[in-house]
Design goal:
This protein is about 65% helix and about 0% strand. By secondary structure, it is mainly alpha-helical.
Length: about 250
Amino acid sequence: MVAREQGQSSQPSTRSLSFAPTRWSLVLAASGQERASLEELCARYWYPVYAYGRRAGLAPESAESFTRHCFHEIFEHRIATLQAQRPVRFREWLLAELRRCMAQDWPPPCALAPSRLPQPPLPLTQYEERHLRESRDTIAPEQGFRRSFAIEVLHRAQERVRAEALEAGHQTMYGQLERFLTDEPTSVDYTELAQSLHTSPMVLRIAIGRLRERFRELVDAELAETITDQTELASERRALRELLADGSDPPPS
């Protein structure tokens, strides 16, 4: 990775985000029939829904049950209402659905058998461990959901950068540089890393700059999947920065 970077320009990448039809725009364009895209979006953001339930006072098992029942309700009944509503942002539509589910009797009097409910992508213990790391404040469930959603966007982009580095065979160098996806490196960092990686600070500046640029591109790609057109992307970037500036933790590793 270092050798390849030495022969390249230090100019930032000029690749632009290709705004093909997104998962959320596909859901809306299909008059509520694009269930697979909606299920994929919900699976991506399972944790923010679980965290909403926990911040609302539910115990871990109850929060998991709430998440599964809420997604079942969305998939089986609420998807049909989307064409009339035409919500622009998946994030805010999902939050409105959570409020609606929480306002109903809970647990539901005629709860479905667990086998008929959507399955969580990860074990309950992993969601709970993350919740305990991220819930040291006392913000309301709604604000906690928005913050968890923002952290999940960064986490997914980080995982994609890591996968690209592994595929290219740069896992060792990436392991040293990953923390600079969200933290600005200092001159001391450059000096110490250059010694550790047996390269020059200038080469590291180029490598870290390109890594951060790719991370920003992938954050944009994740955000784009949850909106209906490119004109909303700038406002979603601003919302992401505001949510993360309010004392939130970095993306989980």
